[in-house]
Amino acid sequence: MERIDRKEAIKRTALLMGGVVFAPSILGVLKGCTPSTDRWQPSLFNAKQAALVTALSETIIPAGETPGATDAGVPGFIESMVKDIYTEEQRDLFLEGLASFNEVCEDETGKSFDRLTSEEMFEFASIKNVEAIESEPLEGPQFFLLFKELTMVGFFTSEPGATQVLRYEDIPGIYQACIPFEDVGRTWAT
Amino acid sequence: MNLNVKAKKNNSYDAIVVGTGISGGWAAKELTENGLNTLVLERGRNVRHVEDYPTMLKKPWEISHNDRVTPEVAEHYQKQMRTGYTIRQTTKHWWVRDTDQPYEEVKRFDWIRGYHVGGRSLMWGRHSYRLSPMDFEANAKEGIAVDWPVRYDDLAPWYSHVEKFAGISGEALGLPQLPDSEFLPPWDLNCLEDHLKDSMAEKFNRVLTIGRVANLSRAHNGRGSCLNRNLCMRGCPYGAYFSSNASTLPAAEATGNMTLRPHSIVDSVIYDEELGKATGVRVIDAETMETHEFYANIIFLNASCMNTTLIMLNSRSDRFPNGLGNDSGELGHNVMDHHFRVGANGEYDGFEDRYYWGRRPTGFYIPRFRNLNGNDRPYLRGFGYQGGASRQGWQRGVRELAIGKPLKEFIQTPGKWTMGMTAFGEMLPDHSNRVYLDHDKRDKWGQPTLVFDVEFKENEFKMREDMKNDAAEMLEAAGMKNVTTFDDPGGPGLGIHEMGTARMGRDPKTSVLNKWNQVHSCKNVFVTDGACMTSAACQNPSLTYMAFTARAANYAAEELKKGNL
């Protein structure tokens, strides 16, 4: 498959996003939000795997005005899924996928993914995201999308993700079938 | 007094009810309210309303692993998991462990069960529809199986009776093929559902309405109004949907006439050759493995279709060598379910400024519209649809070309409106669709296991063509884009509407039960769960089981008082 030019990928992404510009000022928000694993003690992942999972999940859902993946405990969630829910075969596939994601990163950037700057992480992961979406129909399940889905599930079922980024009502009370979107304001978490 | 007589006296009741699910709960309520001292037997553990719903209040972030179970747990639920929705951390305690409760499949059959007080009334889908005059006449008219021994008018007052107590929300339409219930106010259709409704009326002269469900749209009979959490399957803290635990069993208990005995597996019905009737049941205590006998004047079998059949097949005597009441040889035959998982999905451009508040515990319903006036399709009977519309949520972001902050922002606005519907079709009774006992393979309580030999047949497969294409056609006519169809029947049983194995009929030579749900040849045994059904119709069946049970229980109480039983 033809390699997609990074800039082209970002441009396409921007088009799909309705013209959101990836200005440095926006990316700047990512700075100062270095992923931390303080509260999470990995029990399956080694230090390198934990650092990669933390860096990549935070790149997919970064902290900014609202909490990001690390704040929401997503790295620990991902580990718990891989460790407890996956079969041995699925677990091996995940760990291999993570390793080969990083190998490609080292080949292309000269650095391990978790050693990149936030901007570099975003750029590299954006390309991998586009590549994975384009490869999937022909090549089948892609590690990047599996990881992205795990990150999103973990984040949007977390309290910060559900209540601060999306809208959550534990007990809605009434049902209103057809109301202006502004009355809700954000996508429902459930 | 010798010991046997004393034991018999202590273990004697006016009535015994076997099972505590949708129909057993109703039998318990009606019999006890008629003043009968009633023993209610349940093979599983006790489940007290609210107190024993361990996950009912859990928020998404209070549930680990995205509610999924580990492979070690899943191993025990391989058949129960075939639905795709039953075995979650928050609900798995309501379903049987297949490793404890085995059954055999000559052909795939998805037997999805819950063994505890309340049975599947705790986890049911709550859709509640009356059968129609047409449904009770169809077998006779078409020469299929045997004629129902009752007509709609026999059951109509009992539908009203159970609806007034249970609380059914819905919209009255006056349709001959789907008679109205005694309704509580309906939930509303959302924007896109309303749009489809208008389009269907205009272009096809077909009806779409809100799903009629046993959810309370306002407080009713001491139970609270639904608060639109849509977490019904975990058990409702407000008692806002009908279950035995929230509704019928408390009513039975309030009479002071009910003795509830959990952990009681009924082995068989005791038949007295001299008296020519049943005198009680043999029970295995599931915890101690001890055997007990309990005695009563009347016995209601409400163990759910397949387990009622198992008990009857296992109740062998000189008079009934092939199982209690099985003179006809029909016991265990004519297994039916509904066939579904066929329909269409689509997307809609529009209503982008509209959204909804709350998680409605129902969707829309499209009443049957095929073969209503004679048969003009290449199959008999018909189908209805259940479906719903909603806006895409955060899940659509996985395959979006964005990550990072743009992804977060993108996801905060809901996506397109999408809509889907699946048909529920009638399955014809067929003698060759059957269950039978394997006495060599026994479960850990020493009970014989059931063997399933059931399949969908030609009429069902022909019907599925319409079920699929009509859905797509209606969605496209309403301006839906990217309409796709699906058709994956799975195994029979997946509808969790298994029925028909001890059917009612006019002739004891071809049926097991009479018009009062009495075993033809053993009149003090009544069967009012799904086993009694002579045909399946296409409507969700629980409401009909409730009505048959209330009718039979009141008849039984009257007959007992008259000294006829």
What would your notes on this structure say?
The complex is a heterodimer of chains A (190) and B (565). Chain A is built from 8 helices and 1 strand. In chain A, 56% of the residues lie in helices and 3% in strands. The N terminus of chain A is likely disordered. In chain A, helix 1 crosses helix 6, helix 3 packs across helix 4 and helix 4 crosses helix 7. Chain A starts with 5 loop residues before the first helix and ends in a 10-residue tail after the last strand. Chain A is mostly helical and 190 residues long. By secondary structure, chain B is of the alpha/beta class. Chain B contains 11 helices and 20 strands. In chain B, strands 1, 2, 7, 8, 9, 10, 19 and 20 form an 8-stranded mixed β-sheet that branches. In chain B, strand 16 and strand 17 form a beta hairpin. In chain B, helix 2 packs parallel to helix 11. Chain B is globular and about 80 Å long. The two termini of chain B are 27 Å apart. In chain B, 54% of the residues are buried. The mean pLDDT of chain B is 97. Chains A and B meet through helix 1, helix 4, helix 6, helix 7 and helix 8 of A and helix 6, strand 12 and helix 9 of B. Strand 1 of chain A pairs antiparallel with strand 12 of chain B, so a sheet runs across the interface.
Uncertain segments of chain A of ≥5 residues (pLDDT<50)?
Answer: 1-37
Largest sheet properties of chain B? 8 strands, mixed
Q: What oligomeric state best describes the polypeptide chains here?
A: heterodimer
Helix content of chain A: 55-70%
- Poorly predicted regions of chain B: none
The biggest chain-chain interface is: A-B, 65 and 53 residues
Roughly what fraction of the amino acids of chain A lie in strands? under 5%
Average pLDDT of chain A = 86
Helix content of chain B: 10-25%
C-alpha Rg of chain A (nearest Å): 18 Å
Radius of gyration of chain B: 24 Å
Write a concise keyword list for the protein shown above.
heterodimer, A: 190 residues, mainly alpha, disordered N terminus, B: 565 residues, alpha/beta, 8-stranded mixed β-sheet, 6-stranded antiparallel β-sheet, 20 strands, 23% helix
